[in-house]
Structure formats: structure tokens, C-alpha cells
Amino acid sequence: MKSTSATYIARARNELTEHLIYGKLARREKNPENRKLLEKLSAQEKTHYEFWKSLVPGSDPKPHALAPIGIPLLRTIFGVTFTTKFLETHESASIATYTSMLAAMPEEYKGRLREIIEDERSHERGLLGELKERRIAYIGFIALGLADAIVEITGVHAGFLGVTGSTFIAGISGVIVGFAAAISMGSAAYIQAKQDTGKSAIVSGFTTWASYFVSVIFLAMPYFFITTMIAAFAASTTIGILLLAAFTFFGAVVFDRKFWREISESVGLMLGTALATYMLGTIVGKVFHTGDRSF
Q1: Cα dist. 71→8, 17, 25, 210 in Å?
Q2: Which of 132, 162, 184 is the last residue of a domain?
Q3: Cα 123 to Cα 43: distance, rounded to the nearest angstrom
Q4: Same domain flag for 127 and 139
Q5: Are residues 96 and 158 located together in one domain of the fold?
């Protein structure tokens, strides 16, 4: 019985924590529609908390200490859509847990538990799908800039492995090529967005340019601090993979995609491009003896 009570209290604690989190998010939300949705989620989590608490009379579950502080900070950095969907990533496990508890649940409580399971399975997901956030509309442009930069600039750096032993030359070349490519990508995004009345062409173009060029700077940095080409390339490639992983995780949460499939495809494309340009660079280096020259 003690074990069952502890389980109920743990469930109540989780639901109370989410009630407080959604309440804080609602109070900070400027969009009236989003605020209303978050308030509804907060109220719903409170009823779930009260159900679990009622199963252990006299109990006084406390919320998790750091979550009501850390989650609003996460919202400030990554936005309300990512934060709320990130909170719900554990719901499939909760649904399975709640379903497994049905058989042992006292008969008078089973109906209410079924309602909670249905809330977790469909209602909350439906509510989260109704959230509107400006930054989400431009995710495609950020992805375009970041992914293209990582693939193309990693390819440029890989090509220089066979052309020169100077990390400085490789780094500068990546920045110059990246700057030009960022302008080109931003211009293309601007023109594309002009055909979409739901997006600002200027914001779309700038977002693509910025995400591209910022990625270029991150990828080039190791070449200015490391003097060995292969070590600089390894560090730059690692940074590229981490950037891809971070953004892929963001997209996987927001758009309910499969993280491992997406990251495997992206990294495979990046490394495949790097291999192809390395082979080309090696051929160019041997034909023109660039490794023997001083730049």
C-alpha cells in the first residue's frame, strides 16, 4: 500500500509542477490566444493533480523545485511552442503508466483516470497544435541557412585538406565563401518569401542570411586557433554535427519528427559532401603541387 501511495504522490507532484509551469508561461504570454490555451492547460493539470492527491488523504505533494524556474527560462530562449511540446514529450510514457494502473485502481476512480488518459492522449496535443508563434513561421528559413552552411562550408574545408597545409588559409577561405553564399541564400529566401503573403520577405531573407553566416563563423573558428589541418577539420566537423543535432532536436520537438532519422540524414549528407570535396582537393593538390607552395 505504501508503494502505491508513493506512486500516487509522485503522479500528483508531476501534475502540480506542470500546473505551475503552464500558469507561469500563461502569465508571460503576450498573445491572447496562446495565453488562453496555456491557462486551459494549467487548469487541466490542476484537476489531474487534485485527482492523484485525493487518492492519498492528508498528503501534501510539493512541486519539483527547479522546473517552474527553468522552464520559463527555456521559453525565453526557444519560444513557447518548443517549450510546451518539450514538456509533453514524456506524455507517451505517462499514458502507458496510467493505462497499466487502471486494473489496480479502485472501481470508483477508474472513470476519472480514463478521462485523464484521454486528456494526455489527445486533448493536450490538440491544444498545443493551436499555439501560434511568429518565430515558428521562419523555422524553414533558419533550417535552410544552417543546414546549407554546414554542408557547403564543411565541404570547402575538407577540400582544403588536400590543397594546403595552412589552417589560416582554409579558415579565411571558408569565411569568404560563406559570406558570399550567405548573401546568395538570403537573396533567394527574400525572393521566395515575396510569393508568400504570410511571411515578411525582409525577415525571411535576413533570417536565412544570419543563420547561414553565423554557422560559417562557428565552423571557421577552429582554423584560427588550431595549426594542424586534420585537427582543425575534426574540431570544425564536430561543431557542425553539434549544430545540426541541436537544430534537429528543436525541429523534432516542434514538428513531432523522428530525431534520429533526421540527424542521420543530415550528418550523412555533410560527411558525404566532405568526402567528395576532399577527394577533389587531393587531386587538385597533386596536379598543381599546392602543398609545396607558400601562400
Answers
A1: 24, 11, 9, 27
A2: 132
A3: 13
A4: no
A5: no
Cell numbers given for 157: 574545408
List, in sequence order, the alpha helices (H) in 63-166: 67-78, 80-87, 91-101, 107-118, 124-129, 139-161
What is the crossing angle of helices 229-255 and 80-87, to 10°?
Answer: 80
Quote the CA–CA distance of 33 and 39 in Å, as a whole number.
10
* pLDDT tens-digit readout, 167-187: 999 999 999 999 999 999 999
Please give the tally of structural domains in the chain: 2
Q: Give the CATH number for residue 34.
A: 1.20.1260.10
258: DSSP letter? -
Count of positions (residues) in the chain: 295
Q: Which three cell numbers stand for residue 208?
A: 536565412
187 vs 210: CA distance, rounded Å:
12
Tens of pLDDT, residue by residue over 200-241, are: 889 989 999 999 999 999 999 999 999 999 999 999 999 999
| Rounded Cα–Cα distance for residues 135 and 132 (Å) | 9
* Residues 58 and 178 placed together within one structural domain of the fold: no
Range of the domain at 241: 135-292
